[in-house]
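Write out C-alpha coordinates for NADH kinase.
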Amino acid sequence: MLCVRPISQLSPSNPNFMCQRMAMKRLLLFLKPFDANPVLHSDAFSRVTTPQILRHLENRHEVHREAINFCKDILQQKHVDWESVSRNDLSEPITNVDLVVTVGGDGTLLRASHFLDESIPILGVNSDPTQVDEVEEFSNEFDASRSTGHLCAATVNNFEQVLDSILNGEAVPSKLSRMSLSVNSELLSKYPLNDVLIAHPCPASVSRFSFKIRNEQSRSLLLNCRSSGLRVSTAAGSTAAMLSAGGFPMPILSQKLQYMVREPIAPGKLYSFMHGTISPDQSIEMAWLCNDGVIYIDGSHVCYPIQYGDIVEISSKAPSLRVFLPHHMMNMIGAEETSEQHTHPKL
Protein backbone atom coordinates (compact mmCIF):
# COMPACT_ATOMS: atom_id res chain seq x y z
CA MET A 1 0.00 0.00 0.00
CA LEU A 2 1.32 3.42 -0.95
CA CYS A 3 -0.12 6.34 0.99
CA VAL A 4 0.46 9.66 -0.73
CA ARG A 5 0.12 13.22 0.48
CA PRO A 6 2.05 15.33 -2.05
CA ILE A 7 4.18 18.08 -0.55
CA SER A 8 3.06 20.43 -3.31
CA GLN A 9 -0.49 20.39 -1.96
CA LEU A 10 0.47 21.81 1.43
CA SER A 11 -0.94 25.26 2.08
CA PRO A 12 1.59 28.16 1.77
CA SER A 13 -0.45 30.00 4.40
CA ASN A 14 0.63 27.46 6.99
CA PRO A 15 3.45 29.01 9.10
CA ASN A 16 5.25 25.67 9.01
CA PHE A 17 5.00 25.48 5.22
CA MET A 18 8.71 26.01 4.51
CA CYS A 19 9.73 23.58 7.24
CA GLN A 20 7.31 20.99 5.88
CA ARG A 21 8.58 21.44 2.35
CA MET A 22 12.09 20.75 3.60
CA ALA A 23 10.96 17.69 5.50
CA MET A 24 11.42 14.16 4.25
CA LYS A 25 9.08 13.16 1.46
CA ARG A 26 9.52 9.41 1.05
CA LEU A 27 9.54 6.80 3.79
CA LEU A 28 9.62 2.99 3.80
CA LEU A 29 8.04 1.06 6.67
CA PHE A 30 9.98 -2.21 6.96
CA LEU A 31 7.97 -4.75 8.97
CA LYS A 32 8.57 -7.90 10.90
CA PRO A 33 5.79 -10.27 9.70
CA PHE A 34 2.68 -10.66 11.83
CA ASP A 35 3.02 -14.42 12.12
CA ALA A 36 6.67 -14.68 13.10
CA ASN A 37 5.94 -17.71 15.33
CA PRO A 38 4.42 -20.42 13.11
CA VAL A 39 5.22 -22.96 15.84
CA LEU A 40 2.15 -21.62 17.67
CA HIS A 41 -0.03 -23.49 15.20
CA SER A 42 1.81 -26.82 15.35
CA ASP A 43 0.58 -29.94 17.15
CA ALA A 44 3.98 -30.43 18.76
CA PHE A 45 3.76 -27.02 20.39
CA SER A 46 0.42 -27.81 22.02
CA ARG A 47 1.88 -30.95 23.62
CA VAL A 48 4.65 -29.16 25.52
CA THR A 49 3.26 -25.71 26.25
CA THR A 50 1.26 -24.36 29.18
CA PRO A 51 -1.68 -21.92 29.14
CA GLN A 52 0.60 -19.18 30.51
CA ILE A 53 3.13 -19.61 27.70
CA LEU A 54 0.39 -19.68 25.10
CA ARG A 55 -1.16 -16.46 26.42
CA HIS A 56 2.29 -14.84 26.52
CA LEU A 57 3.08 -15.70 22.90
CA GLU A 58 -0.38 -14.74 21.67
CA ASN A 59 -0.03 -11.42 23.49
CA ARG A 60 3.34 -10.80 21.85
CA HIS A 61 1.74 -11.44 18.47
CA GLU A 62 -1.07 -8.97 19.20
CA VAL A 63 1.24 -6.30 20.66
CA HIS A 64 3.35 -6.41 17.51
CA ARG A 65 0.28 -6.15 15.28
CA GLU A 66 -0.99 -3.16 17.26
CA ALA A 67 2.41 -1.47 17.04
CA ILE A 68 2.40 -1.75 13.25
CA ASN A 69 -1.11 -0.33 13.03
CA PHE A 70 -0.13 2.48 15.40
CA CYS A 71 2.89 3.46 13.30
CA LYS A 72 0.78 3.42 10.15
CA ASP A 73 -1.83 5.66 11.80
CA ILE A 74 0.86 8.16 12.78
CA LEU A 75 2.29 8.20 9.26
CA GLN A 76 -1.17 8.89 7.83
CA GLN A 77 -1.12 12.17 9.74
CA LYS A 78 2.29 13.29 8.46
CA HIS A 79 3.20 15.12 5.29
CA VAL A 80 5.16 12.24 3.82
CA ASP A 81 4.73 9.66 1.11
CA TRP A 82 5.15 6.17 2.50
CA GLU A 83 4.66 2.52 1.81
CA SER A 84 5.16 -0.64 3.83
CA VAL A 85 6.90 -3.93 3.05
CA SER A 86 7.35 -7.17 4.98
CA ARG A 87 10.98 -8.03 5.64
CA ASN A 88 10.36 -11.43 4.00
CA ASP A 89 9.26 -9.83 0.73
CA LEU A 90 12.29 -7.66 0.01
CA SER A 91 15.16 -8.95 -2.10
CA GLU A 92 16.51 -5.84 -3.85
CA PRO A 93 18.45 -2.86 -2.45
CA ILE A 94 16.33 -0.07 -0.99
CA THR A 95 16.48 3.11 -3.06
CA ASN A 96 14.52 6.30 -3.68
CA VAL A 97 13.46 6.83 -0.08
CA ASP A 98 14.61 9.36 2.51
CA LEU A 99 14.14 7.23 5.60
CA VAL A 100 13.56 3.57 6.50
CA VAL A 101 11.54 2.83 9.64
CA THR A 102 11.73 -0.74 10.89
CA VAL A 103 9.00 -2.13 13.16
CA GLY A 104 10.06 -5.23 15.06
CA GLY A 105 13.30 -5.50 16.99
CA ASP A 106 17.03 -5.54 16.39
CA GLY A 107 16.69 -8.49 14.02
CA THR A 108 14.38 -6.51 11.75
CA LEU A 109 16.73 -3.52 11.79
CA LEU A 110 19.67 -5.81 10.97
CA ARG A 111 17.74 -7.35 8.08
CA ALA A 112 16.91 -3.92 6.66
CA SER A 113 20.53 -2.80 6.95
CA HIS A 114 21.55 -5.44 4.42
CA PHE A 115 19.57 -3.57 1.76
CA LEU A 116 20.89 -0.08 2.57
CA ASP A 117 23.91 1.94 1.57
CA GLU A 118 25.19 4.89 3.61
CA SER A 119 22.91 7.44 1.93
CA ILE A 120 19.62 6.39 3.60
CA PRO A 121 19.19 6.65 7.40
CA ILE A 122 17.26 4.10 9.41
CA LEU A 123 15.06 4.33 12.52
CA GLY A 124 14.18 1.26 14.55
CA VAL A 125 10.88 0.93 16.40
CA ASN A 126 10.85 -1.79 19.05
CA SER A 127 7.34 -3.15 18.65
CA ASP A 128 7.38 -5.51 21.64
CA PRO A 129 9.77 -4.35 24.41
CA THR A 130 10.56 -6.65 27.31
CA GLN A 131 8.48 -5.90 30.41
CA VAL A 132 10.54 -6.20 33.59
CA ASP A 133 7.53 -6.97 35.80
CA GLU A 134 6.43 -9.71 33.44
CA VAL A 135 9.86 -11.33 33.40
CA GLU A 136 9.97 -11.35 37.19
CA GLU A 137 6.46 -12.75 37.50
CA PHE A 138 7.09 -15.75 35.25
CA SER A 139 10.81 -16.29 35.93
CA ASN A 140 10.15 -19.66 37.60
CA GLU A 141 7.88 -20.88 34.79
CA PHE A 142 9.36 -19.75 31.46
CA ASP A 143 11.44 -17.05 29.80
CA ALA A 144 9.09 -14.08 29.42
CA SER A 145 11.66 -11.85 27.71
CA ARG A 146 10.41 -10.02 24.66
CA SER A 147 12.51 -7.80 22.37
CA THR A 148 15.71 -6.10 23.52
CA GLY A 149 15.71 -3.45 20.79
CA HIS A 150 19.26 -2.36 21.58
CA LEU A 151 19.52 -0.25 18.42
CA CYS A 152 15.87 0.84 18.31
CA ALA A 153 15.39 4.52 19.18
CA ALA A 154 11.60 4.35 19.45
CA THR A 155 8.64 2.40 20.78
CA VAL A 156 4.96 3.18 20.33
CA ASN A 157 5.29 5.45 23.37
CA ASN A 158 7.60 7.93 21.65
CA PHE A 159 7.43 7.07 17.95
CA GLU A 160 5.64 10.25 16.91
CA GLN A 161 8.00 12.43 18.94
CA VAL A 162 11.10 10.76 17.50
CA LEU A 163 9.69 10.84 13.97
CA ASP A 164 8.86 14.55 14.24
CA SER A 165 12.38 15.32 15.41
CA ILE A 166 13.73 13.54 12.34
CA LEU A 167 11.32 15.16 9.88
CA ASN A 168 12.08 18.59 11.36
CA GLY A 169 15.80 18.06 11.03
CA GLU A 170 16.40 18.14 14.79
CA ALA A 171 17.76 14.60 15.10
CA VAL A 172 21.01 13.52 13.47
CA PRO A 173 21.80 9.89 12.64
CA SER A 174 25.00 8.30 13.88
CA LYS A 175 27.35 6.44 11.56
CA LEU A 176 27.86 2.84 12.66
CA SER A 177 30.71 0.79 11.25
CA ARG A 178 29.97 -2.28 9.18
CA MET A 179 32.21 -5.06 7.91
CA SER A 180 33.50 -5.80 4.45
CA LEU A 181 33.88 -9.50 3.58
CA SER A 182 35.53 -11.15 0.64
CA VAL A 183 35.99 -14.81 -0.28
CA ASN A 184 38.94 -15.51 -2.56
CA SER A 185 39.16 -11.76 -3.26
CA GLU A 186 35.49 -11.61 -4.34
CA LEU A 187 33.52 -9.05 -2.29
CA LEU A 188 30.29 -10.31 -0.74
CA SER A 189 27.17 -8.22 -1.31
CA LYS A 190 26.10 -7.94 2.34
CA TYR A 191 27.77 -5.67 4.90
CA PRO A 192 27.35 -7.11 8.42
CA LEU A 193 26.25 -4.58 11.02
CA ASN A 194 26.53 -6.87 14.07
CA ASP A 195 28.79 -9.84 13.59
CA VAL A 196 30.09 -12.66 11.44
CA LEU A 197 30.49 -16.28 12.49
CA ILE A 198 32.62 -18.59 10.36
CA ALA A 199 32.19 -22.21 11.39
CA HIS A 200 31.51 -25.77 10.33
CA PRO A 201 27.81 -26.21 9.39
CA CYS A 202 27.51 -28.88 12.10
CA PRO A 203 27.91 -27.25 15.53
CA ALA A 204 29.33 -30.50 16.98
CA SER A 205 32.15 -30.62 14.43
CA VAL A 206 35.58 -29.07 14.83
CA SER A 207 36.40 -26.05 12.68
CA ARG A 208 39.96 -26.00 11.35
CA PHE A 209 41.43 -22.79 10.03
CA SER A 210 44.40 -20.47 10.18
CA PHE A 211 44.35 -16.70 10.41
CA LYS A 212 46.56 -13.65 10.64
CA ILE A 213 46.12 -9.93 11.14
CA ARG A 214 47.48 -7.83 8.31
CA ASN A 215 47.81 -4.30 7.04
CA GLU A 216 49.45 -2.83 3.97
CA GLN A 217 52.92 -2.94 5.51
CA SER A 218 53.02 -6.17 7.48
CA ARG A 219 51.36 -9.39 8.56
CA SER A 220 51.19 -10.98 12.01
CA LEU A 221 52.16 -14.47 13.00
CA LEU A 222 50.04 -17.17 11.34
CA LEU A 223 47.82 -18.86 13.93
CA ASN A 224 46.55 -22.39 13.27
CA CYS A 225 43.32 -23.17 15.11
CA ARG A 226 41.04 -26.03 15.94
CA SER A 227 37.93 -24.65 17.58
CA SER A 228 34.19 -24.02 17.23
CA GLY A 229 34.81 -21.29 14.68
CA LEU A 230 35.74 -17.63 14.48
CA ARG A 231 33.48 -14.74 15.41
CA VAL A 232 34.15 -11.14 14.38
CA SER A 233 31.95 -8.27 15.56
CA THR A 234 31.58 -4.56 14.99
CA ALA A 235 31.22 -2.09 17.86
CA ALA A 236 27.43 -2.34 17.50
CA GLY A 237 27.62 -6.13 17.73
CA SER A 238 30.06 -6.21 20.63
CA THR A 239 27.18 -6.22 23.14
CA ALA A 240 25.44 -9.18 21.48
CA ALA A 241 26.85 -12.70 20.97
CA MET A 242 30.42 -11.45 21.37
CA LEU A 243 29.71 -10.17 24.87
CA SER A 244 27.87 -13.38 25.80
CA ALA A 245 30.94 -15.37 24.76
CA GLY A 246 33.24 -13.36 27.03
CA GLY A 247 34.09 -10.40 24.84
CA PHE A 248 33.95 -6.77 25.91
CA PRO A 249 31.58 -3.94 24.90
CA MET A 250 33.07 -1.35 22.58
CA PRO A 251 32.12 2.33 22.17
CA ILE A 252 29.22 2.32 19.72
CA LEU A 253 30.96 4.60 17.21
CA SER A 254 34.29 2.77 17.29
CA GLN A 255 35.63 1.74 13.90
CA LYS A 256 37.53 -1.19 15.35
CA LEU A 257 36.44 -4.80 15.03
CA GLN A 258 36.66 -7.44 17.74
CA TYR A 259 37.47 -11.06 17.01
CA MET A 260 37.31 -14.22 19.09
CA VAL A 261 38.27 -17.82 18.38
CA ARG A 262 35.40 -19.83 19.85
CA GLU A 263 36.37 -22.57 22.27
CA PRO A 264 39.96 -23.04 21.02
CA ILE A 265 41.38 -26.54 21.49
CA ALA A 266 44.70 -26.56 23.37
CA PRO A 267 45.90 -23.09 22.30
CA GLY A 268 48.77 -23.25 24.81
CA LYS A 269 51.00 -20.19 24.80
CA LEU A 270 48.93 -18.65 22.00
CA TYR A 271 45.80 -18.36 24.15
CA SER A 272 46.18 -14.57 24.52
CA PHE A 273 46.02 -14.24 20.73
CA MET A 274 42.64 -15.98 20.46
CA HIS A 275 40.80 -12.73 21.26
CA GLY A 276 41.60 -9.15 20.26
CA THR A 277 40.73 -6.16 18.13
CA ILE A 278 41.40 -5.12 14.56
CA SER A 279 42.12 -1.47 13.78
CA PRO A 280 40.54 0.32 10.79
CA ASP A 281 43.81 0.01 8.85
CA GLN A 282 43.98 -3.74 9.46
CA SER A 283 42.10 -6.81 8.26
CA ILE A 284 41.84 -10.41 9.40
CA GLU A 285 42.69 -13.02 6.79
CA MET A 286 41.50 -16.58 7.33
CA ALA A 287 42.26 -19.77 5.40
CA TRP A 288 39.49 -22.35 5.83
CA LEU A 289 40.87 -25.87 6.30
CA CYS A 290 37.72 -28.05 6.47
CA ASN A 291 35.78 -29.58 3.60
CA ASP A 292 32.66 -27.59 4.53
CA GLY A 293 32.10 -24.26 6.21
CA VAL A 294 29.58 -21.43 6.44
CA ILE A 295 29.85 -17.68 6.87
CA TYR A 296 26.88 -16.55 8.96
CA ILE A 297 26.09 -12.83 8.71
CA ASP A 298 24.13 -11.11 11.50
CA GLY A 299 22.57 -14.36 12.64
CA SER A 300 21.45 -17.36 10.63
CA HIS A 301 19.30 -15.81 7.89
CA VAL A 302 22.17 -14.73 5.61
CA CYS A 303 24.91 -17.29 5.01
CA TYR A 304 27.53 -18.16 2.42
CA PRO A 305 29.08 -21.63 2.00
CA ILE A 306 32.86 -21.98 1.91
CA GLN A 307 35.12 -24.96 1.29
CA TYR A 308 38.65 -26.18 1.91
CA GLY A 309 41.29 -23.67 0.87
CA ASP A 310 39.00 -20.65 0.63
CA ILE A 311 40.51 -17.38 1.84
CA VAL A 312 38.16 -15.09 3.80
CA GLU A 313 39.16 -11.49 4.50
CA ILE A 314 37.29 -9.23 6.92
CA SER A 315 37.81 -5.53 7.60
CA SER A 316 35.89 -2.43 8.62
CA LYS A 317 36.39 -0.90 5.17
CA ALA A 318 32.69 -0.92 4.36
CA PRO A 319 30.04 1.79 3.91
CA SER A 320 28.79 2.89 7.31
CA LEU A 321 25.11 2.72 8.27
CA ARG A 322 23.33 5.87 9.39
CA VAL A 323 21.17 4.97 12.39
CA PHE A 324 19.06 7.10 14.72
CA LEU A 325 20.20 5.74 18.07
CA PRO A 326 18.26 5.59 21.37
CA HIS A 327 18.59 8.63 23.60
CA HIS A 328 20.45 6.78 26.37
CA MET A 329 23.00 5.52 23.86
CA MET A 330 23.59 9.02 22.53
CA ASN A 331 24.35 10.14 26.08
CA MET A 332 26.96 7.39 26.37
CA ILE A 333 28.80 8.46 23.21
CA GLY A 334 30.37 11.44 24.94
CA ALA A 335 31.44 9.38 27.95
CA GLU A 336 34.98 8.21 28.49
CA GLU A 337 35.65 5.32 26.09
CA THR A 338 37.59 3.09 28.43
CA SER A 339 37.10 -0.08 26.41
CA GLU A 340 39.22 1.36 23.62
CA GLN A 341 42.25 0.38 25.66
CA HIS A 342 41.78 -3.21 24.45
CA THR A 343 44.08 -3.62 21.49
CA HIS A 344 45.23 -6.48 19.36
CA PRO A 345 48.27 -8.26 20.82
CA LYS A 346 51.50 -7.74 18.94
CA LEU A 347 52.34 -11.01 17.24
